[in-house]
Design a protein that fits this description.
The protein is about 40% helix and about 20% strand. By secondary structure, the protein is an alpha/beta fold.
Length: about 150
C-alpha cells in the first residue's frame, strides 16, 4: 500500500485525483498505475485500470486470479467491473469512497453472487494516510477555485 500511496502522490502532482494502485503476484509488483484522466483526456485512465493493464501485459494473461491489487481508494463501478473481468484474486484498499465506491459503500459488486466471479476484499489498510492525501488534494483544489473566482 505504501507504493500505491507514492503513486497517488505522483497523480496529485499532475493535478489528478491522487489515487495509486499496484498489482502484486507472488510478492512481486507486476503492475503500477495512478489516475491520469486529465493528463490523458481519457475517462478510463483510472489507477486500477492502468495497473491491471500493465500486469496483464507483463504476465501475458488477462486472468489475474493469483494477483492482489492494492489501491488507495475504494474502486468505482467501472474499476470493480474490471476486477471481476480480470478474475482478480484479491483486492486491498485504503479509504472508502462514500460517493462512488462499488466495494461496499454504494454497491458491493465484488461480492455479488449473481456475477461469475467474486473477489476477496480487505479494506481500511493505511486508511488514514489514504484518506488524508485525498482530503488535502480537495481542500487545495477548492482553495484554488475560490482564488480564481
Amino acid at each position: 500500500m505504501t507504493q500505491a500511496l507514492q503513486l497517488a502522490q505522483q497523480a496529485g502532482q499532475l493535478g489528478e485525483v491522487p489515487v495509486g494502485a499496484v498489482v502484486v503476484v507472488g510478492g512481486e509488483v507486476v503492475g503500477r498505475g495512478y489516475n491520469r484522466r486529465e493528463v490523458d483526456s481519457d475517462p478510463l485512465s483510472h489507477a486500477e485500470l492502468k495497473a491491471i493493464a500493465e500486469a496483464s501485459q507483463k504476465l501475458k494473461s488477462w486472468r489475474l486470479s493469483e494477483a492482489t491489487l492494492y489501491v488507495t481508494l475504494e474502486p468505482c463501478t467501472m474499476c470493480a467491473g474490471a476486477l471481476i473481468q480480470a478474475r482478480l484474486g484479491r483486492l486491498v484498499f485504503g479509504a472508502k469512497d462514500p460517493k462512488a465506491g462499488a466495494v461496499g459503500s454504494l454497491y458491493n459488486l465484488l461480492k455479488d453472487d449473481r456475477l461469475n466471479h467474486e473477489v476477496e476484499v480487505t479494506s481500511g489498510v493505511l486508511e488514514q494516510e489514504c484518506g488524508k492525501i485525498l482530503k488535502d488534494f480537495f481542500v487545495a483544489l477548492r482553495g484554488r477555485k475560490k482564488a480564481d473566482r
